[in-house]
Amino acid sequence: HMLYTCILLFSRSVLTVACEQTEVLLFDPVSSRHIKTLVEAHEDCVNNIRFLDNRLFATCSDDTTIALWDLRKLNSKVCSLHGHASWVKNIEYDTHTRLLVTSGFDGNVITWDTNRFTEEGCPHKKFFHTRYLMRMRLTPDCSKMLISTSSGYLLILHDLDLTQSLEVGSYRILRARRAPLSTEGSSAGSRSGGSRHTIDSKTHPHREGLSPRNSLEVLTPEIPGERDRGNCITSLQLHPKGWATLLRCSSNMDDQEWTCVYEFQEGAPPRPPVSPRCSLRLTHYIEEANVGRGYIKELCFSPDGRLICSPYGYGVRLLAFDEHCAELVDCMPVRTALLREIRSIYSHSDVVLTSKFSPTHCQFATGCLSGRVALYQPHF
């Protein structure tokens, strides 16, 4: 099974694998037994999977659709959702509003009201649009949406309200030159990650009359050693407790890659307007192996947030914030620090593209370019 943009996803009882060749594979993660293959889950590559509850899950595809499935009846889809105009790459779910949130290479973020789905689909609306969209994530409490772009920008929607669509009609910000953040008053500014712009209902003409929620912050995260070169944010993940975001970045020349951790700086005193304080600060990073150029490598946090599993050539590295695998908040460095390599595991015969920890067992899985899925658990 080809896994060019493979995604692994654990639920409480099953490991699901999204494959390049229109398939979805299901495994029992405890016994490693193959349960079922959804042979033609979509008409093109399957890109992502998201569980809505213990039985319902959604898949998205390059065929521009999203499909809902029920674990109790896998012979057919619950329904197909149509609304994107290009490849659909991400699925998120807000358990509070029961809104499914998807994003694709058409630049659209769309919300789907699963409270009212039928065999014909469910009501949807465009929530947001931006150019060069790569990845979209919601924080665990759904208070923020983060969007990464192939042009190296990171967009953050604060105080998120998914029921209110945004009308952003100008893309001059996304084309703006990267400018270093002023370090006036604190050295933290130079570590926090580049230029910052905020848009809210008071200052942006396209948001007049709307609620003050969904304020938009546009950042150009600094990458160590990359001050004069652009970069592409290829993978975007969030700390399970919402403390930080985890980025995998590659240079525009595609000759270097980094894994970077940025802490959310909440409740900090505001900086003067001439030197706004970014809501993110680069705390840890590490350079990655430049193997498998052009392929996206999906990394992940462990359920407790103490470990990072990162694809590294034909294997993975387990990374931590310090040698004791401490919590991020307990070992916050004064200056940007290197991630610590705890263990390297090389068990594939091709480039590893994806990794995922189990939320319930001491276990993680990896998938490589040639199609092999591997499960790991420690020996006690």
Automatic annotation (TrEMBL):
Residues 182-217 are annotated as: Disordered. SMART domains: WD40 (SM00320). Keywords: Repeat, Signal, Ubl conjugation pathway, WD repeat. Residues 185-196 have a biased composition (Low complexity). GO terms for cellular component: Cul4-RING E3 ubiquitin ligase complex. It holds the Pfam family WD40. Residues 197-210 have a biased composition (Basic and acidic residues). WD repeats lie at residues 39-72, 81-113. PANTHER family: DDB1- AND CUL4-ASSOCIATED FACTOR 10 (PTHR14588:SF2). May function as a substrate receptor for CUL4-DDB1 E3 ubiquitin-protein ligase complex. This is DDB1- and CUL4-associated factor 10. It comes from Sinocyclocheilus grahami (Dianchi golden-line fish). The lineage of its organism: Eukaryota, Metazoa, Chordata, Craniata, Vertebrata.
